[in-house]
Amino acid sequence: MFWEAPVAHLRSRLLQILLPALLSAGLLLATALNYPLLTLGLVAVSVAMFWAALWSAAVLLGGRGARVLAVLALGLGWFAEQMGSSRGWFFGRYTYTDVLGPRLGDVPLAIPLMWLALCLVGYVLASLMLWRTPVHAAPTLKSGALTAWLAAMIVTTFDLGADPYFVYVLKAWIMEKPDGGWFGETLQGFTGWMLVSFVIVAVFQALAAPRRVPAIGRQTRLAAWVPIGLYASGLVFQVLFGHPIEIRAIAFFAMGMPTLIAWVVWRHWTPARAEVPQAQPVYSVPLAPMGLQADPLADQTVAALIGPWSGADGATGPATDRLPPLMAGWTSNGALADWGQDDVAAAAADPAVVAALRVYVSEGRALPAWADAAKVERAEAIFMEQGPLSCTLLFCSSLPECYVLPNLAEVLHIAGQLEQHTEHRIRQTAAMVFPVMMKGGLMDASGAGVAQVLKVRLIHATIRHLILRGEPQTVRGQVAPLLQAGAPTGMHAALMSHGWDVDRQGLPCNQIELAYTLLTFSYSFLKGMRTLGLGLPRADEEAYLHAWNVMGHVLGVRRELMADTMDEAASLFERIQAQARGQTVSPDARPALGRALMQTMERTIRLPVVRGIPVPLTRWLIGPDTARAIGVDERVSWPTRLLFGAGRLLVRLIDTVVRVFSPGFSLSRMFTRIVGYHLLTHFLLDQTRPLNLPDQLLNPLTDTVAAWSDDPGAPGWLNRLEDRWTTTGHWRPAHGVGTTKRPVPDAEAVAS
Question: What is the 3-state secondary structure (H, E, C) of 267-311?
Answer without folding.
Answer: HHHHHHHHHCCCCCHHHHCCCHHHHHCCCHHHHHHHHHHHCCECC
